[in-house]
Amino acid sequence: MYQKFDRVEKHFYRRQYQTSGGDWSTLYYAIFTDWKKKRRTFPLGSDLKTAKNKLKEVEGRNVMREDFDKDKIQGVTFSKWAERYLELVRHKKSLERDDRSCRRLSAFLGPMLLSEITRAKVMEYRNMRLTDPIIRRGKPVDGSKLKASSVNRELACLKHMLRLAADEGIIENVPTVKLDSEKKFARRRVVSDEEFKALLDASPRYLQRVLIGLYETAMRRDELLKLTWNRVDEGAGVIRLLPEDTKEDDKRIVPITPALQEILSELRAEQKRVANLASRVFTRDGHPITSVRTVFELARERAGVTDMVIHDFRHTAITRWASLGMPQEIAMKASGHKSLAMHYRYVNLQEKHVKEAFKLFTQRLHGIEVDAAKSVSY
């Protein structure tokens, strides 16, 4: 994991780190020598404005000669620290996932003091979770077991929580927990033409529009659902995402394809009849769509499609672009990928892609005029 730590101003520091997936995260810290002449480090969260306000608060506590060691002496339970942690990271784009992880972890570790959480306890939690069934619509799925990648996310959250607790001086040491490489959990799933049609046929119109949007843009689910009209430039034929809109915290240009344009026109017409107070692009009867998980699972069951998740549409879009010969640099600009290694994880070319590409190449070699869009199957 690559990271850098730099001083912003007096007592105020910024730590930026890059995950194995290539995404960047930022946390701010207060670092100073307190009235006891002890060097202190306090995590201040991920939002700049909030962090500066908390810095003033911590400096004020120091002026009042507060004992910063009292939490360390008395001990802090995991559930209490989970509440404080979620406050510290409330501006993270993955907050919803962290909140779910904290609830899962609290069910097992809640009453324990942070200082009592050892590597053995963490591994006990991991092994227990790996035997738990997958929960769908509030019910366990018969014969299923939770995937290792899901447990990995929870343990990554736990490590981050304990690291921040150590920064604040609540615990002395962070248990060593080695997470499996993300590459091990990489999915190779691509949505076929037949599956896509079956899903659309089994979906209500608002979900159809979301699925087409994902299929055409390679946007992540939350990026699409939270998209607002001020990011859409239909005249120029692009969607311009700002850093705060994306997981990678960087600008991104997404092309508006003819299929997507039809959806946008339909949504604009619908929203002229129904007030859209949130200015969201993808709505249901003019109201923001907060989640499509349940309706997607129902559509998937009706369509008879197995082993598919919403994120597979991102793999599918990027694979389609590659099969059509789109330059890597352009595809990465549209998808937001920063490294070729990450890009290659999303290009899941199938046997049919190879066959059709060579068929097209042979036809061109012999001077046969072909329509590339019709020749490539995806």
Can you walk through the features of this model?
The structure is a single chain. The protein has 16 helices and eleven strands. It has 378 residues and is of the alpha+beta class. The chain has a four-stranded antiparallel beta sheet, sandwiched between helices. Strands 7-8-9 form a three-stranded antiparallel beta sheet. Helix 3 (78-88) packs antiparallel against helix 4, helix 4 (95-109) crosses helix 6 and helix 7 packs across helix 11 (293-303). The longest helix has 20 residues, at 148-167. It is globular, with a radius of gyration of 24 Å.
Strands, helices and their partners?
Layout: E1 2-9, E2 12-18, E3 24-33, E4 39-45, H1 48-63, H2 70-74, H3 78-88, H4 95-109, H5 119-129, E5 135-136, E6 139-140, H6 148-167, H7 193-201, H8 205-217, H9 221-225, E7 232-233, E8 238-241, E9 252-255, H10 258-273, E10 283-284, E11 287-288, H11 293-303, H12 312-323, H13 328-335, H14 340-346, H15 351-365, H16 372-375
Antiparallel strand pairs: 1-2, 2-3, 3-4, 5-6, 7-8, 8-9, 10-11
